[in-house]
Amino acid sequence: MDEWLYWVVRKHSVEHRFLSSEDHTIMQLNSQMEMRATLLGLIFITLMTLDMVLCRQSCNISPKLRDKWFFKDRKNKGFMRIRAHALIYVNKENNTKIRYKCLERRGNIYLLRTHRTPKIKNGVLCLGFSYLGVSPYEGYGMLRLNSNGDSFSLISPKPVNRNTPIEIDTSCDLLYGSRRQAFAFIRRAGSGCRFPKKLRGEWDITYIHALKAIFTPKTLIYHLVDRSTLSLHCDKRDGNLFLLRAKNYNNSTMDAIVCFKITPLTGSAYYSYELSRLNSGHELDNQLRLIPADETAHIHQTCNWIDSPGRPEFLYH
Questions:
Q1: In this structure, what DSSP letter does residue 297 have?
Q2: How many CB atoms lie within 10 A of CB 156?
Q3: Coil, helix or strand at residue 238
């Protein structure tokens, strides 16, 4: 019977073993099975890690939270803008702005980070949201789930070293336990909407099927090439984002909406304003989107291209 010299190296010792060819075959099979099990384990760990990384990279804030929000009883002191992947807090008292990036989400709990000065530090904020319904106002309860930051403000970042792992389980230190968390009511910004004074008036427009566009304080009126007109009422506004609405479009039970980001072009020799459309559509050259007449529209929910570059037209004289 053939014999094989088999060397087994363990730590710093070498053992000599003489194995028959049958034993050697069995050992080869066992070794292959162990290698397969190891590879499967490594693949599983890699996939789990990749899944965690992708989840953190694609931390999407709920569309229902994406809007401009005021703090109840503190309307004149600050507000928040919530985007798909970010929360921007503006403090009117000291004229400061903090932009947080969404790192991790677990249900209605969000872990946010802002870059700080000095560069060796990050600012961390952990928030939870609870929907309160539409009466007496549509709003949420907002709960701070990590300990105090630079100040006792609900939105202040907590400084941490850059090399410190940032995860919900470790950073949201008030998520579990009996310590009291800071709390506030927030409510959605109202529907007041007016066009800027410099925009009001009659304009030529690059839209091929329109002869001109007229802006009044609350209405955009298209004069179309077929001699018809289309009036779009200013329904919602958030900074330079506008949601316009035409009630009972074409005598139907549906309303037509269009969303614009309106930007002044101070350095252009030809155009005065850029109107970037932020919605898909299927009416008027796919510019208008139809929604039920009784449906409430919100900029950061209804305007489904809000995070895209948009489809621009230009105003000029």
A1: -
A2: 18
A3: strand
The answer to whether the CB of 102 falls within 8 A of the CB of 222 is no
Token duo for residue 105: 């989400």
Whether 289 has a pLDDT exceeding 90, the answer reads: yes
What's the CA gap between 166 and 183, in Å, rounded? 22
Read off the pTM. 0.67
Which neighbouring-strand residues pair with 264?
A: 273
Query: 153 vs 77, 93, 116, 274, CA distance in Å?
Result: 12, 12, 17, 38
What is the tens place of the pLDDT at every residue in 91-148?
888 888 999 999 999 999 999 999 865 566 789 999 999 988 765 557 899 999 998 8
Tokens of 79: 């507000």
Q: How far apart are CA 133 and CA 29, in angstroms?
A: 64
**Antiparallel, parallel or unpaired: β 121-133 and 109-115:** antiparallel
Work out the angle at residue 45's Cα, subtended by the Cα atoms of residues 42 and 47, and round it to the nearest 5 degrees.
110
Q: What is the DSSP track for 41-58?
A: HHHHHHHHHHHHHHHHHT
Question: Pairing state of beta strands 254-264 and 241-246?
Answer: antiparallel
Asked if 109 contacts 175 with a C-beta cutoff of 8 angstroms, the reply is yes
Q: Which residues are bridge partners to 215 per DSSP?
A: 201, 220
118 upstream amide cis, omega within 30 of 0 = yes
Report pLDDT for 26: 54
Contacts by residues 256-259 (CB-CB < 8 Å, ≥ 24 positions apart):
256/232, 256/283, 256/284, 256/288, 256/289, 256/290, 257/288, 257/289, 257/290, 257/291, 257/297, 257/302, 258/232, 258/287, 258/288, 258/289, 259/299, 259/302, 259/303, 259/305, 259/306
Residue/partner pairs of 204-207 with CB below 8 Å, 24 or more apart: 204/315, 204/316, 204/317, 205/275, 205/313, 205/314, 205/315, 205/316, 206/271, 206/313, 206/314, 206/316, 207/313
State the amino acid at position 116 in one-letter form: R
**Residues 145/171, Cβ–Cβ less than 8 Å:** no
Cα→Cα distances 166→26, 58, 86, 89, Å? 48, 15, 16, 21
Stretch (H or E) spanning 261: strand 254-264
